[in-house]
Design goal:
By secondary structure, the chain is mainly alpha-helical. Helix content is 69%, strand content 7%.
Length: 107
């Protein structure tokens, strides 16, 4: 399993067991309001420690990684569902707003 970070692919098979468990949890619960704290509790690690090793191993912080999961799922749904054009336009507008908010939060 791979994901792209700044043009580079990261081999998730090389992640530690704890980070891989966190990634699996995030992928399963991406549509819920999950936090770093809830993921940390799920994998039985302190939040600061998970944050540090997650960034070291994936090259992305927790928020950016979760946003990537959500955006990829949204793109998949837009391309693979039979929504009406107006619904797709709304989804695209919401994605743009989300990206702007994410950029503001990461700066």
């Amino acid at each position: 399993i791979h994901h792209i970070q700044q043009g580079q692919e990261v081999d998730e098979s090389k992640l530690s067991k704890s980070v891989m468990e966190a990634v699996k949890y995030m992928r399963k619960h991406y549509s819920e309001p999950i936090s770093l704290e809830s993921v940390s509790a799920e994998v039985h690690l302190k939040t600061d420690y998970l944050s540090r090793i997650f960034k070291e191993e994936t090259g992305m912080n927790y928020s950016a990684f979760l946003a990537e999961i959500r955006l990829k799922k949204a793109a998949y749904l837009l391309n693979n569902t039979s929504e009406r054009v107006q619904e797709r336009q709304l989804a695209i507008q919401m994605s743009v707003i989300f990206l702007l908010l994410l950029k503001r939060g990461l700066d």
